[in-house]
Design goal:
Isomerase/hydrolase; isomerase; 221 residues; four-stranded antiparallel sheet; alpha+beta; eight-stranded mixed sheet; acetylpyruvate hydrolase activity; metal ion binding; globular
Length: 221
């Protein structure tokens, strides 16, 4: 099944699938669990739209490339162009929706790349490296500093975070991104993952949610 932006009620979103902008180490406890330094400014990297797959119906992982780690993140869908130091009001107006996403990482591959000081694309941009369910509309959340994100695997809660824990909150980090390069309708921003990341295995049963707003069940095929 190919990915298509849509809202929770099934309404198709007529934006092209764009780039996926990721904020690394945006939760202090997650940086600590991987023994990474906490960045002094947002750590940005980009996944291509070609890596996005739908959560619905399950998804596959490349088990032949070493450990595949899950990272549950609040995804923000961009609905209007943003560039050149947008105001807070412009950022809020440009947000089309929110969803709980999975940023998948080939952790063994990433470790080798980091040792050599090389970019992370091989570990972060493989086909299927971003798993997205439908979005809830932007006005679901009045306070963007209080959005929960939760991932359960095989009935056990593995990650349970909130945007209040972010080192770089949603609106300011989008302003930071847009100050460096344009964001376009259909782009997705992954806002970082809370503590609790770990390996996925074939057969794992997942529940991914923005508590109180959306909840999805899936499995690793």
């Amino acid at each position: 099944m190919s990915y298509q932006h849509q809202y929770l009620d099934g309404t198709r979103i007529h934006f092209p699938l764009g780039k996926v902008v990721c904020i690394g180490r945006n939760y202090a406890e997650h940086a600590k669990e991987l023994d990474n330094p906490i960045p002094s400014e947002p750590l940005l990297f980009i996944k291509p739209g070609s890596c996005v797959v739908p959560l619905e119906g399950g998804f596959k992982i490349p088990t032949e490339r070493g450990a595949v780690h899950y990272e549950a993140e609040i995804a923000v869908l961009v609905g209007k162009p943003l560039s050149t130091h947008p105001s807070e009001e412009e950022v809020r107006d440009a947000i089309s929706g929110f969803a709980p996403a999975l940023d998948l990482t080939l952790r063994d591959v990433q470790a080798k790349l980091k040792e050599k000081g090389l970019p992370w694309e091989l570990a972060k941009s493989f086909d299927g490296a971003c798993v997205l369910p439908p979005f809830v509309v932007a006005d679901t959340f009045e306070d963007l500093t209080d959005i929960g994100i939760r991932l359960s695997i095989n009935g056990e809660v593995r990650q349970d975070g909130n945007s209040a824990m972010m080192l770089n909150p949603i609106v300011p980090v989008i302003q930071h991104i847009a100050a460096h390069f344009s964001l376009l309708p259909g782009d997705v921003i992954l806002t970082g993952t809370p503590v609790g990341v770990g390996p996925l295995r074939v057969g794992d049963e997942l529940v991914l949610e923005l508590p109180g707003a959306s909840r999805f069940e899936s499995r690793v095929l």
